[in-house]
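In this supplementary section we document a worked example of the pipeline. Step one takes a protein sequence of length 211 as its only input; no multiple sequence alignment statistics are reported here. Step two produces a three-dimensional model, which step three serialises into C-alpha cells for compact storage. The input and output of this example are shown verbatim.
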Amino acid sequence: MQIKLFKFNPVKVNTYIIYDETKEAIIIDCGAYTEKECMKLQNFIDSNNLQVKYLINTHLHFDHVLGNYFIYKTYGLKSKYHIYEEIIPDLKTQADFFKFQIDYHPISTMHHINEKDTISFGNTILEALLTAGHSPGSLSFYCKKNNCIFTGDALFYHSIGRTDLWNGNKKTLTTAIKSKILTLPNSTKIFPGHGQSSSIEEEKIYNPYLQ
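The serialised model returned by step three reads:
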C-alpha cells in the first residue's frame, strides 16, 4: 500500500491518497481549496494512472470537505461518511462561522459508513471505527495488513481533537481513543487529519490528554 500526503487549504488539512499495486485508490478528507490545489491532486492521480474508487471523510468539518465538489465534478464520486455527521451544520454555514470564503455547491445523496464497515479497493481493506467526540460521527480507518490508522481529527501527535465545536464531547472522544485506537498494536502508525504522523506507542507514552 502506498500513501501520498497533501497538505491543503489555510487550515493545512492532511489529504491522503491511498493506493496499491492494482492502481485502485481512495481519497481520505479532500481539503483541496484552490484551483491550484485541485490540479495538484488531479495531476498526481493522472500521472500515476490511478483509478479512484472512493472518496471517504473521517468527518464533515468544513476544512476536510472543501475539495469534495471537485472530486464529484471530476470523478463522479460522492463522499462516504457516518450518518451522525449530518447533525452538524452544512459546509456553507460552517464556512460562514469561520469567515471562510467558499463557492458552495451542495451534493445530495451521500453514502453512509457504519462502524465495522470495510472499504475495499485493490488488495487493500480499511475498517471503519467510530471515534466520535471531535464531531458526532468521526470515523477512523484502520488497515490491519499495513499496520496503520487514519484518525482524522480524533487523535494527533501528542494531542487530540478540539471538542468545542458542534456536538463535540471530550469524554466521548477520550473514551473512544482509549478503547478503539490505543488498543491496536503499539507499532501501528497513526496518520492524523493535521500535523505529523505518530504511533500508538508514542501516544500511549507522551500524549498528555490520554494519561
